[in-house]
Amino acid sequence: MSNGGMHGSEQDELKVGLVGYGSGGAIFHAPLIAAQPRLRLDAVVTSNPERQAQVRADLPGSEPVADLDALFAREPDLVVITTPNRTHVELAKAALDAGVPVVVDKPFTPTAQEGRELVEHARDRGLLLTVFQNRRWDSDIRTVRKVLAGGELGRVHRFESRFDRWSPEPKPTWRDSGGAEDVAGLLYDLGSHLIDQALQLFGPVASVYAEIDRRRPGVRADDDSFVSLTHANGVRSHLWMSKLAAAPGPRLRVLGDQGTFTKDGTDPQEADLRAGKRPVDDTWGRESEDIWGELGDGESTRTIPSEPGAYQAFYDGVVEAIAARGPAPVDPADAVAGLEIIAAAQRSSENQTVERLL
């Protein structure tokens, strides 16, 4: 697929249109776009008057507009889709049809088939299409990559990873209380990250087993789920996601035949963004030493300093890709592979089976 769609020379500023200004748009995308010197957030699409006022307050240099037609009239160089999951396909297709490169927030599309069709749509138009899988650049995942590269674990046979939350009362939002029609639930929300991380670390998945549950009263989508992946190379990934974990387990463990790496705590970048910190800050993405991981070899353990998180790398990669100097920061085919695993996990849980993919 071409990485085309750049308007002007390599040194020109790229105008960005942000579609949606909920938590994803306001907390993650807007500040990360602003942190990239080549990008300028020109307009934000929202028809909600309160959010339009918030855009004016938060982003003095950006214009709130009511719809896509008003956005396209401003001739953006990049469109970023951060609207509710069920709307991703329609809005991304509209932007591609307008001749504009597109970033889609995760989960990419409701189904793998829709994802494949969207990838083909972009390829036919020679335009960049990529997916905001920002947690590839979490501090803990970057640290795991460093540990794996060092070889001290030996041959890895198991990866354990979890996102535990404590939210016993469902919130009245589509994300927390919606159903299948909303593409809601933890498997899509947090599972899309956990699955993507496992795929990036250990490669294609041969089989899937899952337990997908609704625990809290009144919810219509999963809020407590477990997914087991057997990778083609034999590594098993065990992934947990829950809204009912009052005391969190280890963030991750990697077990090899010569050592084990264990990591507690949570990557700080989301909390930093919510607190108003930005990637230019000296402490950006840096974990406190008390949650650095431990590497044990059966006789002793030592602390492994965490690599800094780097969400800003995503939009750095977008700029490089638009300038045709590099690949998309996230290949949308990777997101399609994740959606195939989500569908297999749903079948596995419903039928109490192990679903083979390879």
From TrEMBL:
Source domain of life: Bacteria
Keyword vocabulary terms for this entry: Oxidoreductase
Gfo/Idh/MocA-like oxidoreductase N-terminal domain sequence ranges: 14-131
Pfam families membership: GFO_IDH_MocA (PF01408), GFO_IDH_MocA_C3 (PF22725)
Gene Ontology molecular-function annotations: nucleotide binding; oxidoreductase activity
Segments forming domain GFO/IDH/MocA-like oxidoreductase: 141-261
Keyword Transmembrane listed: no
Family: Belongs to the Gfo/Idh/MocA family.
Family annotation (PANTHER family): CONSERVED EXPRESSED OXIDOREDUCTASE (EUROFUNG) (PTHR43708), CONSERVED EXPRESSED OXIDOREDUCTASE (EUROFUNG)-RELATED (PTHR43708:SF5)
Name recorded for this polypeptide: Putative dehydrogenase
Organism: Saccharopolyspora dendranthemae
